[in-house]
Write a structure and sequence with these properties.
heterodimer, A: 241 residues, mainly alpha, Methane Monooxygenase Hydroxylase, Chain G, domain 1, B: 470 residues, alpha+beta, Beta-Lactamase, Helix Hairpins, 4 domains, six-stranded mixed sheet, five-stranded antiparallel sheet, 13 strands
Chain lengths: 241, 470
């Protein structure tokens, strides 16, 4: 880095925004590849995901350093301050997203040792696709500073929960039907949980984007449906069919 | 690439050729003058010859073009700047290229904010929603592989192709070509790189489809086939002389054969629709008329079951961009399902509404029920939607079934769909058609309350309406 050239303040801010976009792209790719590695039983891809997580961590540290430097040297105020702080928050969410993707890839490695579980991995893939879409939408909203898109992501959080609940029941039915699948099903269950949490991080980012653009928190009713599967005992419902 | 800017190791440039000519002429003149000095007897002739050679050399020099043109940047034609017609034509060619094309400038190697879009054609601007010149590359393409390839083209002079997928409801497969565009001016100027994207979705899709079709078809056809061969065996064996049993078996067999036929037809239409999913439909359909046509078509079925179909066509014409056959199939499949799950003597309501905003289109129609969007299109500004809702008063579905409804062969357990067994592909087909039309699909249901399916499509833009009328 050319330390001697004094960059314009605006350039520095833009650079942080650009770094976030790049980090977002990497996190998106990590999630997509992790899901692919589960669906296709691709060991090489899963290993690549695990390795690439280091890069995401490095980017996270870098962004944080730059943001702190900017705050210390330039004392940003108003929207500039929100942008800087927003970048730090989003970087943390993206880093967590990457960790969860890495975890999915690690479990994919274990699953690949056993028998294929076609219908279940399909369900994971479907849920993963939904979560990827949300991540993409919220990052699009961030890079284009589009408030509507961010709010739209924030409002549709229950879709992921529905998928998670459906998957939870499906897995439970499988495990009850054939106890030998319990090992694999548990891994799939954790994968589903990880995906659900990635969805939550996307929602967090949507909130940050909203704060960054308007300076206010999102108010209003988020369509929060009934409690998620783990809060209630789902077994009684299984006997209804 | 223009010829002037490709220095060949063999051919000297035009300037050095000129020098060679000048030097050889000077030598010739010198030799002639020298000879004239040695042999004074023919000096008159020799001096005359020298004058002729020097004169013609001067003439040649005067006629030959002014110093060779300065090298122009690669990619631009040598006469580009001087010929406005060609430049304009090239501009228009660039603009009208079907594949998105970007030119990216470098900045500093370790500064991601340095990669800016210098130029983008219309396809690229539309696809990546680039609103201004000089936008950051990373804001429109986040794919790490492509960003890396761009860096390599800018600072490493390496050309590459990168495959990547953009996720979402309709995932697309792209191939990105990255090429360095080195500028002759060299030092101090930003390196440039060319990025060309190409949509490879269709090719990949065809390949996937074949695999999926085989797996689905063979799995689903196995059950009716097994029962057919079972009955044939029985008829050949001990049921050979039992007339009553034979008739009953033949009835079952023909029902199974019908089912296989329907299944094959549905699978074929599903794979056809999936192949076309990324090609926008051309044509215009009036959603209200389509609904009325379908209601007429299923009247035989509904009369047999004594089901009343109440159609509300809405006040205005609901014109949408779409493929008529496919839109009919959407309404048909939704109505089929509603009739199938309605008790005898029940009612099915079908309503068409138009001029809805994005949020109105997918708003709730059935208070108290769980609502779940099955297909959500990308939000587009200023687009109005027309929606068709089909509501039945059947048993309804619990919320855990809703996310999986559009899955192939998914069935809500414990529900009987009547004598005419479905293929389990109806809603999958609806989903793909809706996707292709950039519309949405919402289901609302609760156990005991019945179900409402709403499919909504972008309406024809008014502007085009006026042009068509005039």
């Amino acid at each position: 880095m050319n330390q001697h050239t004094v960059k314009a303040y605006g350039d520095e801010l833009n650079q942080i925004t650009a770094e976030i976009a790049r980090m977002g792209g990497l996190a998106e790719a990590q999630v997509a590849d992790a899901i692919d590695s589960v669906a296709r039983r691709d060991i090489a891809l899963a290993r690549a995901v695990v390795e690439r997580d280091l890069k995401l961590d490095a980017l996270h540290r870098d962004i944080e350093k730059k943001a702190i430097r900017l705050i210390a040297l330039r004392q940003p105020v108003a929207s500039d301050l929100r942008r800087t702080l927003g970048a730090m928050k989003i970087a943390t969410d993206l880093e967590r997203t990457g960790d969860l993707a890495k975890n999915i890839a690690k479990r994919a490695l274990i699953l690949a040792e056993g028998e294929p579980m076609q219908p279940l991995t399909r369900s994971i893939e479907r849920m993963g696709r939904l979560v990827s879409t949300r991540l993409r939408d919220v990052l699009d909203a961030y890079t284009a500073s589009e408030l509507d898109r961010a709010v739209a992501v924030w409002q549709t959080d229950d879709e992921v929960d529905e998928h998670y609940n459906a998957l939870f029941r499906e897995l439970l039915t499988y495990m009850m039907g054939d106890p030998r699948t319990i090992g694999a099903c548990t891994h799939l269950l954790f994968m589903a949980k990880n995906l659900e949490r990635i969805g939550d991080h996307a929602t967090n980012i949507a909130e940050t984007v909203h704060y960054e653009i308007t300076g206010e928190d999102i108010v209003g009713e988020r369509p929060r449906a009934q409690p998620t599967a783990e809060d209630s005992d789902p077994t009684p419902n299984l006997s209804t069919h | 690439m223009s010829y002037d800017s490709s220095p060949s190791p063999v051919a000297p440039t035009s300037t050095s050729r000129l020098w060679t000519v000048g030097i050889s002429i000077a030598i010739a003149v010198g030799v002639l003058l020298g000879l004239a000095f040695v042999h004074p007897q023919i000096a008159g002739w020799l001096v005359g010859g020298a004058v002729v050679v020097a004169g013609s050399a001067w003439l040649l020099n005067a006629q030959s073009p002014a110093p060779a043109p300065t090298p122009t940047p690669e990619g631009a034609p040598a006469d580009g700047p001087t010929d406005p017609v060609t430049a304009d034509l090239l501009d228009r060619v660039f603009e009208s290229l079907d594949d998105p094309v970007l030119i990216v400038s470098g900045g500093e190697p370790d500064d991601i904010a340095g990669r800016r879009i210098v130029m983008a054609n219309k396809a690229a601007r539309d696809l990546l929603r680039i609103h201004r010149q000089g936008a950051l590359l990373v804001q429109v393409i986040r794919e790490p592989g492509v960003l890396e390839a761009v860096d390599e083209a800018l600072f490493g002079d390496v050309s590459r192709t990168t495959d990547y997928t953009t996720g979402g409801q309709r995932d697309r497969r792209w191939r990105a070509w990255t090429r360095p565009l080195s500028t002759e001016a060299g030092e101090g100027r930003d390196p440039l790189a060319l990025v060309v994207l190409r949509d490879e979705t269709a090719a990949r899709r065809t390949e996937m489809m074949r695999v999926d079709f085989l797996a689905n078809a063979s799995h689903e056809l196995r059950t009716p086939l097994a029962s057919l061969s079972g009955f044939i065996e029985t008829l050949k064996g001990h049921a050979r002389d039992d007339a009553a049993a034979r008739d009953r078996f033949l009835d079952i067999m023909s029902a199974q054969a019908d089912r296989m036929g329907r299944l094959v037809a549905d699978l074929l239409s599903l794979s056809r629709i999936e192949l076309n999913e990324h090609i926008p439909p051309s044509g215009r359909v009036d959603l209200d008329r389509a609904a009325a046509d379908v209601v007429d078509a299923v009247s035989i079925l509904t009369q047999a079951k004594q089901i009343v179909v109440a159609l509300d066509r809405g006040e205005t014409r609901a014109s949408i961009n779409g493929d008529r056959d496919e839109i009919l199939q959407v309404v048909q499949n939704l109505l089929d399902n509603a009739v199938k799950y309605s008790p005898a003597g029940g009612t099915v309501e079908i309503s068409v509404r138009s001029d809805l905003s994005f949020d109105e289109a997918w708003s709730s129609r059935m208070p108290g029920a769980t609502r779940l969007p099955l297909v959500t299109p990308d939000r587009a500004a200023g687009v109005l939607y027309a929606a068709v809702t089909v509501r039945d008063h059947g048993p309804g579905m619990a919320r855990e079934h809703l996310p999986r409804l559009t899955e192939r062969f998914y069935r809500v357990e414990g529900q009987k769909s009547g004598e005419r067994q479905g293929t389990g592909l109806g809603l999958a087909i609806v989903k793909h058609i809706v996707n292709r039309h950039e519309g949405g699909l919402v289901v609302e249901s609760a156990p005991g309350l019945g179900a409402a399916f709403t499919a909504w499509f972008p309406m024809v833009v008014e502007r085009r309406d006026v042009r068509a009328a005039s």
